[in-house]
Specification:
five-stranded mixed beta sheet, SulP family inorganic anion transporter, two-stranded antiparallel ribbon, SLC26A/SulP_fam, 25 helices, STAS_dom_sf, mainly alpha, elongated
Amino acid sequence: MLRLSHFNRNTIKGDVFGALTSTIVALPFALAFGVTSGAGAIAGIYCAVLTGFFASLFGGTNPQISGPNTGLTVAMAAILSSFIAQSPEQGMAAAFTVVTLAGLFQMLFGVLKLGKYFVLVSYPVISGFTSGIGVLIILSQMEPLFGVSAQQMLTQFSSGGISAEQLINSNVLLGLGCLLLLFLWPERLNRIVPASIIALMVATAYFVFSGASVPVVGAITSELPSFNLPVYNAELVSEMIKSALLIATLSTLDSLMTSLTVDSISNDLHDSDQELIGQGVGNMIAGLFGALPGGGATMRTVTNLRAGGTTPLSGILHALFILAIVLWAGEYTAYIPVAVLSAILLKVGIGIIDWNFLKRIHQIPLFSVGLMLSTLVMSVAIDLVTAVLIGVFLANLVTIRRLSEIQLDNLKLCSGQEDEQLPLDEKQLLQGMSDRVLLLHISGPISFGVARSLKQSVAQVDQDKTLLIDLSDARFVGISSTIAIEEIIVSHLNQGRDVILASVCERVRKDFDKLKLLERIPKQHIFTSRKQALTYLSENTRKED
């Protein structure tokens, strides 16, 4: 859905300034991410143009600036490398088909209204995941900076075969100098001119005037990107789907986290599902034109917001400004040293590691620490998908255990001697049968695991007693709870003991009927109220006496 209604004349000035400022910040990153991905600087530039334009036009966060980012670049670099190795002829085309497919998945997420669920991932998993991406970015810049990969460097260090020329040369010194500049550039000046732009200008001037022999980005063509149809490769199809889901998930997380940041700053509310549709449209089109996948970029979005951008027009203008710069001055990227882009990404990699979590690691529960560190290690050693899936699985196991503990509050097991919250007449009836009747009060849904624990508790307390299950406060149980209750009932009946049901409302009765649970209990043992059941038990136990 086009959001033209958000544009108005009163905000145009702020949107223009926001777009200009965010463009200055975004340009070095678009170049750096493009080069690092292996697809070339132009792929990063057109990612900023295409995802930035269409995500703003169709998205759900007014001042959102979209483009290439760290996690997506790491993932895309791995996908490109893997696909080209497996299929040299179609590998590149298959990788960009993945981007288009990821966009379609993202649009599907939005249509199915799944946006709210993506921000519920456990914090230790997010922390380990983003920190792992930071480590991967740092490792990926070893080769552009030192001429050898991180693995080769480690091997050479261990064997003592690394030379001084590899560690100290003009490319290394330029990169480390730019990195130092990025860290030392004052924050008050950073608001006026970003440190990345200063580093880019300094490194370019050094290359032009010194005549040093260092690798450069190379000129970017002023021609618009060509349209490429998606390809189908039977050998890669399963990996393509898996990779597309990874890209869609990463873009979704980045975009929605940025949207939440915007909400906190602007006191506005974004539309998560519409945002996913917008990001999906942007990524789908980016893949068709050979661009990297993109997502909401927090730093660029906040820059836009603080410079005055408040409507989708700022994101659209941001994309158009980048396009104009590339078409007008793309040839000048031939003078930009690769080392400065490595420095920019090293700064990004170091910055996104969750140092705040690591500094307080001794104060954090052991499980959370283990979850964060294991996700980090798996992100680096295995892959991002496996890391997130295992991290979420482990976090959910703990969540289920904690929910089970909370669910126990919905259950009360008593025999009349305890201080139950019952009306006086019912309490007296139960106390008079304390040696023959066990009351199980259920006030809400329970899980199957809780039921098994409860069954053991019933067995420990039960000494040939009739089990009265009271559902007077349970207006909903669900199928899982019905199965759990069924196990308790069946276990009790198998031991030759009576089971009485009280206060089964119509909605609960429907759940029970689905599993034919009520057929297991004699009709005379099913009552509309707890008092009726207690009265029946009191009269019958008196007769037996």
